[in-house]
């Protein structure tokens, strides 16, 4: 049995327009089907407006789709009874792009990380503190940072706290919605490295949503391309992605930037001759 | 990258300190670079390395009561540091245009784009409203923005981020500036829009001969666009070289690390190493 099974999921927003006779329906997702196995990472690539984040929300149980099912560990997350739902939610965590708005600015790092523990586990204060310190150290922060507030951290550090919170309950699946997109290149590679380590250590599965092909490649086992609400193709390897003939995939490939100035396609190097 | 009379803009021994209660702390020091006509200088560095402080110094946007700016910044031979605010306002937008990272925040939401576009043009020229509007439409058409007429009537929130960034570039180019400072112009955009924006910047520099200071932490952007590159770390320039030279033979340890650790598509996956 797969960890996560998404079956024929369709989602659309109905916008009621006061001035127009007909209501409009915007189809965001169209019959999406895929599975994520335990311990693997699915990278989902798409341009903005492709429906990546909506798909993430559908999987997290925040947006109920009009059609289709989301099966997590064999249970339908939208039609399970409350008790099962609560149990499932424990194994399903998320890390967003904007690390600062994902935390309460009035809480210290300790309280931010302790929230999921308080919700799901009955621990004594000492045990809780020990767990939090372990988590902080696991993501590369130290005990000193426990009493700091979000504004005292940099974006990368705060993203580490978000990751610590997400792994606090040892979940099975983490949805990473553009989690590394707003970080600079040094921090980005450090966070990607951390995520890969955690995946191997805890046997985590990821749904890695991004528009950055390079980041997706470095962490994913399988890759999917989403465009206008349709899952175009799934690839098991880089080679498959590169040999794909699909026009959308080709366009994506063409819009990646050169890694070395010698291979640049956008501009010709300095052909401007200074006059005067 | 020595000081040169042919440089359009030249920064020499720039030293910025911020005054605090506990004494002053240095933000950037010993910054030297120059940009020639039609060239693109890439400024690379992680967050907090002083990239934006440098660009703000060129525009003289720092609060002089709190900041202590030393050194010399010349625009076509004219000293900008300690220039009177009234004079500086004539230069900003006219001779030095600025493109910000987040186009959504760069426009005021309460006026139409046309209003803001025309206001910018008219505050620097003696054109009438009608002429200014015509100029705006002409520039937008020359940068391949469709329906320029309609866009001018839109409010900023009615356009997508990529579109808005292109409008901002059109605005920057409309007065034919000699220098454009582009501070992370594509970080907030997806791949396809990134490509369009970069093409546009290249078009502007080849057609108008504008010198561009391109600030980015994305080495892909740098390798596509820049002619010369300056690498900054903790407020200092650690390496400055021709773009090919920098990618082929990085001299400084930090540059080597940057090149080694970035996520790549084509070459073998390299293990990330902790760098902090």
Could you give a short description of this structure?
By secondary structure, chain A is α/β, with parallel strands linked by helices. Helix content of chain A is 35%, strand content 24%.
Here the CATH topology of chain B equals: Rossmann fold
Q: Based on CA inertia axes, which overall geometry of chain A fits?
A: globular
Biggest β-sheet description of chain B = 6 strands, mixed
Task: List the total number of helices of chain A.
Answer: 9
CATH topology of the largest domain in chain A: Rossmann fold
Number of strands of chain A: 10
Termini separation of chain A: 72 Å
Please identify the top-level CATH class of chain B. Alpha Beta
Structural class of chain A: alpha/beta
What percentage of the residues of chain A does DSSP assign to strands (E)?
15-25%
Query: Helix/strand/pairing class of chain B, anyone?
Result: alpha/beta
Can you write the helix and strand succession of chain A as a string? EEEHEEHEHHHEHEHEEHH
Greatest interface = A-B, 47 and 51 residues
Strand order of the largest sheet of chain B: 6-7-8-3-9-10
Strand order in the sheet with the most strands of chain A: 6-7-8-3-9-10
What is the element layout, followed by pairings?
The complex is a heterodimer of chains A (276) and B (276).
Chain A (H helix, E strand, L loop, with lengths): L3 E12 L8 E13 L4 E5 L6 H9 L6 E6 L2 E2 L5 H9 L1 E4 L13 H12 L4 H14 L16 H13 L5 E5 L7 H18 L2 E6 L2 H7 L2 E6 L2 E6 L2 H6 L3 H8 L22
Parallel strand pairs in A: 3-8, 3-9, 6-7, 7-8
Antiparallel strand pairs in A: 1-2, 1-4, 4-5, 9-10
Helix pairs in contact in A: 3-4, 3-5, 4-5, 5-6
Chain B lengths: L8 E12 L2 E13 L4 E5 L6 H8 L8 E9 L2 E2 L5 H7 L4 E4 L3 H4 L6 H12 L4 H14 L5 H6 L7 H14 L4 E5 L7 H18 L2 E5 L3 H7 L2 E6 L2 E7 H6 L4 H9 L15
């Amino acid at each position: 049995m797969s960890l996560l099974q998404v079956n024929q999921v369709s989602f659309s927003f109905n916008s009621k327009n006061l001035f127009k006779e007909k209501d409009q329906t915007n189809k965001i997702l169209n019959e999406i089907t895929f599975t994520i196995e335990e311990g693997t990472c699915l990278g989902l690539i798409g341009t903005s407006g492709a429906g990546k984040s909506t798909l993430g929300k559908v999987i997290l149980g925040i947006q109920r789709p009009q059609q289709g099912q989301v099966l997590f560990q064999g249970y339908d997350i939208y039609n399970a009874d409350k008790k099962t739902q609560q149990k499932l939610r424990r194994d399903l965590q998320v890390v967003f792009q904007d690390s600062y708005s994902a935390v309460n600015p009035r809480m210290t790092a300790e309280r931010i990380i302790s929230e999921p523990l308080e919700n799901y586990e009955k621990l004594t204060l000492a045990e809780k503190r020990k767990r939090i310190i372990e988590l902080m150290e696991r993501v590369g922060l130290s005990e000193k940072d426990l009493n700091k507030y979000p504004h005292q951290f940099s974006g990368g550090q705060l993203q580490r706290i978000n990751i610590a919170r997400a792994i606090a309950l040892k979940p099975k699946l983490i949805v990473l919605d553009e989690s590394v997109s707003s970080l600079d290149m040094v921090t980005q590679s450090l966070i990607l490295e951390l995520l890969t380590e955690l995946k191997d250590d805890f046997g985590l599965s990821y749904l890695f949503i991004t528009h950055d092909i390079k980041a997706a490649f470095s962490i994913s086992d399988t890759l999917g391309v989403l465009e206008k609400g349709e899952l175009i193709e799934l690839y098991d390897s880089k080679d498959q992605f590169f040999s794909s003939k699909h026009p959308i995939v080709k366009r994506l490939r063409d819009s990646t930037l050169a890694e070395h100035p010698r291979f640049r396609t956008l501009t010709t190097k300095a052909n401007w001759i200074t006059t005067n | 990258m020595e000081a040169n009379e042919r440089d359009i803009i030249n920064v020499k021994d720039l030293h910025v300190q911020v005054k605090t209660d506990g004494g002053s702390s240095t933000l950037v020091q010993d910054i030297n670079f120059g940009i020639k006509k039609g060239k693109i200088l890439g400024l690379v560095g992680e967050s907090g390395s002083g990239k934006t402080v440098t660009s703000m110094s060129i525009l003289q946007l720092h609060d002089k009561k709190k900041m202590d700016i030393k050194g010399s910044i010349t625009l076509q031979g004219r000293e900008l540091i300690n220039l009177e605010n009234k004079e500086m306002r004539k230069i900003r937008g006219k001779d030095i245009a600025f493109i910000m990272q987040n186009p959504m925040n760069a426009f005021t939401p309460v006026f139409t784009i046309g209003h803001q576009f025309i206001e910018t043009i008219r505050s620097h020229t003696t054109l009438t409203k009608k002429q200014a509007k015509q100029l705006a439409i002409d520039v937008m058409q020359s940068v391949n923005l469709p329906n320029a007429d309609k866009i001018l009537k839109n409010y900023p929130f009615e356009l997508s981020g990529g579109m808005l960034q292109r409008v901002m570039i059109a605005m920057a180019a409309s007065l034919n500036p000699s220098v454009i400072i582009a501070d992370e112009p594509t970080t907030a955009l997806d791949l396809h829009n990134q490509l369009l924006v970069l093409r546009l910047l290249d078009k502007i520099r080849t057609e108008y001969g504008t010198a561009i200071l391109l600030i980015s932490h994305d080495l892909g952007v740098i390798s596509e666009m820049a002619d010369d590159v300056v690498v900054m770390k903790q407020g200092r320039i650690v390496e400055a070289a021709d773009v090919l030279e920098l990618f082929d033979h990085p001299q400084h340890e930090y540059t080597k690390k940057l090149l080694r650790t970035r996520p790549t598509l084509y070459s073998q996956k390299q293990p990330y190493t902790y760098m902090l």
